[in-house]
Here is the input.
Amino acid sequence: MSSLRDRLKTVRLFQDIDAIQTIAIFIPLVIVGVMIPVFRLLSGLFENAIIGWYLGLVSYWLTWCTIVPLLLVGKKRLREIIRPHKPNITVALLVLFPAGMAALAKLFTGMGY
Here is the structure.
């Protein structure tokens, strides 16, 4: 009986998903499918593949980190999301944890760049 209840919950969950959420679910697959050819094309266009790599990063950030969020969420809602907040312990840990891990990685030999 609980299996049937779980299935019904899952069906209701998918009925509540709107078009924007559906697009957001598939964006990671689209990113991989689009950006691999972009990086390969740009790194092949230049004698120095690093220049192509950097241009690929620029195109990634402009499209997938700027334009797509603006289209999905909207300018007003995006401003509300990223407005300054009073930092709490969770925010401090989320900021300091990656920096601390990077510092630890540098301390161990063979893990630097």
In short: The first helix runs from residue 2 to 15. The chain has five helices and no strands. Residues 2-84 form one domain.
